[in-house]
Amino acid sequence: MEALEVKTVPALILAATLVLFVLVGVLSRVQNLDEYWVAGRKIGPFASGMAIASNWMSAASFLGMAGLLYLQGYFGLAYVLGWTGGYVLLLVLMASQIRNYGKFTAPDFIGDRYYSKVARFLAALITLAISFVYAVGQYKGIGEMFKWIFGMDYRLSIIAGTIVVLSYVLLSGMLGVVRNQQVQYVVLITAFLLPLFFIAKKMGFFYLVPQIGYGEAVSQLQTTHPEFVLPWGDEGLYSWIALCFTLMVGTAGLPHVIQRFYLVPNARDARTSVVWGLFFIGILYWSSPAFAAFGKILNPDGGKEVADVIIINAAENAGLPEWFAGLLAAGAISAAFSTVGGLLMAGSAAFAHDLYFGLFKPTASAQERVRVARIGTVILGLAIMVVALDPPALIGQIVAMAFAIAGCTIFPVFVLGIWWSRATREGGIAGMLVGAFISIGALFWGETFLAEWIPATSSALIGAPAALLTIVLVSLYTKPPPPEIDTLMRQIHQPTE
Question: pLDDT per residue over 237-265, tens digit each?
């Protein structure tokens, strides 16, 4: 869908939204280390839940979810169930324990729990890789919206989006990112829901609750496009389960999601913030299938060309006024920027806190670490921009690769590190290496039989159990952890006040 001219009203709405993001960043400017990395650990559970949802609901959720459902029908529900199910895992297995540990990053915990600088180094590299791959998908969403609204070339759109997001992340760190994410959630959920009511009404479906009314649309598609409602889709049951499982454990292993639990005052607030976050996320995920079904009826043969912008395409084809498209674009940009902010913070933390300070210069002052973090943010942001200029796949598919890496590497070492005191340094390192080999190797299987059973976007069904088993076996055959690990285990499992 090539944009030939500036869409004036949508452009004004989007420009005002971008100015608001930068203004919030300017007003939240910090120099304090705690405020830069973890927002001073003073974000309440409701506000944190809203930030969690905004941080989570990236371009892959706002644009990509409806696009995948539009293309894949029933099979795309694996994304809905997998991504939301991951937060249930976090709530049950990890949230309060991560907060009780109480430092800055995911590699912090891995390095201390597995009493190893090598483990911390590997975790930091994996965090950078996940942040990089995940952010490429968000940049693509930003580029698509800038191109469509402002009539800009796609590549120029990517550069402009990079400048905006770097401006407020560099100024305000995590404090500004979290405050922006609260604003961004309000923008994105309003932008997502409001047009849906009007599209349903225009199409003659039950519009008071279009998330229910779209059932009639699905019934129509069952006749015209039976593959849209076919259980498990064209891919089959194994592929559906593999994708759903990968997204679930991948969610629970994403470093920029784990880092959220350091922001709240205590462990109870960490658990409560997950519940609020899941509620806020569920509102959008409940609505995405409706957008996909309406879009399929209005533009049944759009294919991949319109998939990533199907929600805007549906609004246009339903005959809604142009300002609705501007509202949707503002929501899409909010979704992409909120996630990019969290990813850049996680990536810069891995660079400055875990690598520079943790391994190479432990004597670095707080001001020096913040300065290095800002340099790392610029380097990471520009590197992501270069790859996003020619993205390798659809937004949702790019993001799913990041989940596969997280589910095969970070999730296994966190779960066993939290719940099994016998897990050793050697076991943790071996588990991460095995998980990394499977998840990254899956990108290069080609047309071999391995690609069928361990696909790149769904490799954790094999990779996560393999990593868990490796950690257990290697730990049992190596020297038990030192006594201080018992102290750490008591700390992370202390009762909630």
Answer: 898 999 999 999 999 998 878 877 766 77
Domains, the chain, ranges and CATH?
8-392 (1.20.1730.10)
Token representation of residue 174: 């995590």
Q: Are 393 and 141 in contact (CB under 8 A)?
A: no
DSSP 481: P
CA distance 332 to 57: 9
Instruction: Name every residue whose Cβ is closer than 8 Å to that of residue 175 and which is 6 or more positions away in sequence.
Output: 28, 30, 35, 36, 39, 40
370: Cβ–Cβ under 8 A, 6 or more apart, which residues?
31, 33, 36, 173, 352
Virtual CA dihedral for 34, 274, 335, 192, nearest 10 degrees? -150
Instruction: State which amino acid sits at residue 84.
Output: T
CA–CA separation, 399 and 243 (whole Å)? 12
Query: What pLDDT, on a 0 to 100 scale, did the predictor assign at position 171?
Result: 66
Cβ count near 247 (within 10 Å): 28
Is the pLDDT score of 465 beyond 90? Answer: yes
pTM of the model: 0.84
C-alpha span between 182 and 47 (Å, rounded): 7
Instruction: For residue 361, report the phi and psi dihedrals to the nearest 5 degrees.
Output: -145, 75
CA–CA distance, 176 with 337 (Å, rounded to integer): 12
Contacts of the segment 478-482: beta carbons below 8 A, 24+ positions apart: 478/424, 478/425, 478/426, 478/427, 479/424, 480/422, 480/424, 481/115, 481/421, 481/422, 481/423, 481/424, 481/425, 482/115
**For residue 323, with 0-12 CB atoms within 10 Å meaning exposed, 13-18 middle and 19 or more buried, which class applies?**
middle
- Residue linked to tokens 């009826």: 297
